[in-house]
Amino acid sequence: MGKPLFYEILEKPATSCAIGICSAIWFYIQKSNIGYSHVGLSYEAAMEGHYWRIITSAFSHISVIHLVFNMSALWSLGVVEQLGHLGLGVWYYLHYTLVLVVLSGMLVVGMYHILIQKFKLEYFRRVTAVGYSCVVFGWMTILSVKQPSSKLNLFGFLSLPISFAPFESLIFTSIIVPQASFIGHLSGIIVGYAVGWGLIHGMNNYWALTMLGWTVVVFIFSLKKSGTFDLNFLEIEPVTDPSLPSVRFFAAGNGRSLQMSTLPDAGSDLV
C-alpha cells in the first residue's frame, strides 16, 4: 500500500504548488473563455514586445487532456525534491524550474526566428505555444542524466524508463495531443540537457532571486507596454522644481553661447 496522498504532498511541496497553480489557471481560463491567443507565446507576439507571454504560456493549458498529461508527469518527476542526498532537493527544484520556464520560452522564440528568417517557414509566425510541457520535458531530461535508473509513471499505470522518457514522451504526446508544440517540448529537452550536463549550473538563492526579480520587472513592464492591461500606477510623472535654474544653448555664428535662467512660475507658458 502506498503512502497517503497528504504525506506525498508534504514530500513534494514545490511540485504540489506548481500543479495547484496550473490547475487553478486552467479552471480560470475555462470559466473566462480565454483562448490560446490571449495567453500563448507566438513569434509575432514576442516581436511586439509581449515578453510576459513567456510566463503566462508556461502555466496555461487550454485542453484538459494536455493538463492531465503534464500534471501526471510532473507529479512523478517530483521525486527530484526527495533526492537531496544526490545534490538535488527542493531548492534545486525551485531554482531550475525558474531556469526552465524562462530559458525554454526564450529558446522557443529563437527557434521560431530561425525557422522563419533562415528557412522562410512563415507558418511559424502564427504558431502559438502554451502549456507546462517545456518544464516537464526539462525535468525528465535532467532526471534522465542525474538518475538514469528511475522510472517515469504516467496516469498511474504507464511506466517508462527515465533514460528514454523525454523522447518517448515527445512521440507519445504528439500522438495523443496532435496540437501540442513539438518545438516547445524540444526546447525543454535542450535546456534540460544543458542543466543536467552542467552547462548551466551554479544557481543558488542569490542568483535565483536575481533572476526572479528581473523576470518580474520585464513581465510587468512588457505587460504595460503591450497595453493588454491598464497599469496606470506605473506611470512616472515628470517633476520640475521652479527654484532650479535651466540651461539652454544658443547658436551664435560659428560658436555657441550658454544662457542660464530660472524657470517661470507654475502655470506660465514656456517660450
Automatic annotation (TrEMBL):
Q: Which GO terms describe its molecular function?
A: serine-type endopeptidase activity
InterPro entries hit by this protein? Peptidase_S54_rhomboid_dom, Rhomboid-like_sf, Rhomboid_protease_S54
Instruction: Report the GO terms under cellular component.
Output: membrane
- Record localization: Membrane
- Domain spans labelled Peptidase S54 rhomboid: 49-200
Alphabetically list the UniProt keywords: Membrane, Transmembrane, Transmembrane helix
Q: Tell me how this protein sits in the membrane.
A: Multi-pass membrane protein
What residue ranges are annotated as transmembrane? Answer: 50-73, 93-116, 123-142, 154-175, 182-200, 206-223
Q: Which domain of life is it from?
A: Eukaryota
Which family does the similarity line name? Belongs to the peptidase S54 family.
| Name of the protein this chain belongs to | Peptidase S54 rhomboid domain-containing protein
Q: Which organism is it from?
A: Anisodus acutangulus
